[in-house]
Structure formats: structure tokens, C-alpha cells
Q: What sequence folds into this?
């Protein structure tokens, strides 16, 4: 038994072809589909049916406190570390700084929270170990100098007259110390530039004793996104 055939006019064929074309979803941007929220047979109700991301260029977003946002400008250099890339330091630059605060950080009624502003950082080079949604620790370079002496921030001591000094081990001694007058230059989150005509290679700087759990590396891990040199 043969199935009956239905003859369609040219106008009907063209009408069906137009309907098929309207059912094809076409992206207006280049990228990779990272999630699909619709299934075959679903009725389209106006919601998003797929997410497209440009994974060839990762952008890092961070929230910066209101006290620091005015110091951050587009084009500033940034250092990025992630758990995935381990000890490798990635470099990038600030490409966006928000003028208005992030909505969920605004004060509401009698409840006040820290106001933060969003920034975006573009990586100079991509890394195959990075994935969408990963967390990152960032340090933004506010100012920099090359070929300078630096010591941990706590190694610099202040006198009442406003002068500064560091403690160093005396030559050929393992315990006896002496004070060395220094001037303070650029100050960072963890290190500070020191200037003195008597500085030379091989000097051993004495650091103040700290409680357990306050090393520079541990401080960096606790800080998360930070602003520093």
C-alpha cells in the first residue's frame, strides 16, 4: 500500500521555508556555547535559551573598596595568581573601573555595608589552565621603580622625630645589631622602598618577631584581591 502524497504549491513551500528559518537561533557575536537552557520541544517564552562566552579572552572582575577605588586607573598593571596556575604569576592591565557602586553593597535602611566598585582586568596572555568562574588573587601596581632596595614593611622603625631606621646585624656578628638610618620611598602592601647611601649587598636585616600565622605569604592568602605595589 502506498502512502498518499500531498502536493504543495510554490507559495506554500516558500511559506514553510520562512517558518523554518525563523526557528533557527543565530548568535550575533562570536564565542562558545557554555550552557543550554532549552530542550527540544520546549515552548519559547522569551527567556534565555543559551549562554555564549568568549573563552579566548578571559576577563577578571573584582570588587574594590571605596577607600581605594579612586587610586585605580585604566591601564594600570596587575599581577594575578590562581589556585589552578599555582605559583605562576600572570600579568594583566585594568581595562574598566566603575563610576557607580555595586548595587548589593549599598546601604539599605539602617543596615550599612562596605561600598565597593567593580573593576575589570584583561590578561596579557592566556593560560590553558584557566577556566570560567575560577577565583583569583590580584595585586594592582599603583607605582613602581626599578633597581631599588626594599625590605618587609615591618622592618622599618619610626622615631619620634619622624626619621626612620632599620636594624641590621653588625659585620662578623650573628647576634649584635645596629641601627641604620634610612629614608622611606614607595610603600606597598608588603614591602617598602628604603634609601640610604650606606646600603650594600650582603647586609642582613633584622625583622621583628611575629606571632605564628602572620607571614607575608599567609597575609597575601588572607587578603584576596588587594591593592599594592
A:
Amino acid at each position: 500500500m502506498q502512502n498518499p502524497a500531498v502536493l504543495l504549491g510554490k507559495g506554500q513551500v516558500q511559506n514553510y521555508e520562512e517558518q523554518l528559518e525563523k526557528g533557527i537561533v543565530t548568535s550575533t557575536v562570536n564565542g562558545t556555547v557554555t550552557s543550554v537552557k532549552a530542550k527540544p520541544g520546549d515552548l519559547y517564552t522569551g527567556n534565555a535559551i543559551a549562554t555564549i562566552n568568549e573563552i579566548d579572552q578571559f576577563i577578571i572582575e573584582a570588587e574594590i573598596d571605596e577607600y581605594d577605588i579612586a587610586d585605580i586607573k585604566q591601564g594600570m598593571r596587575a599581577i594575578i595568581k590562581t589556585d589552578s596556575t599555582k605559583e605562576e604569576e600572570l600579568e594583566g592591565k585594568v581595562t574598566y573601573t566603575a563610576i557607580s557602586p555595586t548595587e548589593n553593597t549599598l546601604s539599605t535602611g539602617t543596615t550599612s555595608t562596605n561600598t565597593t566598585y567593580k573593576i575589570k582586568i584583561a590578561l596579557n596572555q592566556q593560560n590553558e589552565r584557566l577556566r570560567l568562574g575560577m577565583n583569583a588573587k590580584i595585586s594592582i601596581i599603583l607605582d613602581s621603580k626599578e633597581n631599588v632596595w626594599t625590605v618587609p614593611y615591618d622592618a622599618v622603625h619610626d622615631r619620634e622625630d619622624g626619621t626612620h631606621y632599620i636594624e641590621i646585624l653588625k659585620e662578623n656578628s650573628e647576634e649584635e645589631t645596629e641601627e641604620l638610618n634610612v629614608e622611606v620611598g614607595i610603600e606597598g602592601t608588603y614591602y617598602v622602598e628604603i634609601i640610604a647611601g650606606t646600603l650594600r649587598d650582603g647586609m642582613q636585616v633584622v625583622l621583628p618577631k611575629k606571632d605564628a600565622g602572620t607571614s607575608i605569604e599567609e597575609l597575601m592568602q588572607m587578603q584576596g584581591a588587594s591593592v599594592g605595589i
User: Anything to note?
Assistant: The radius of gyration is 29 Å.
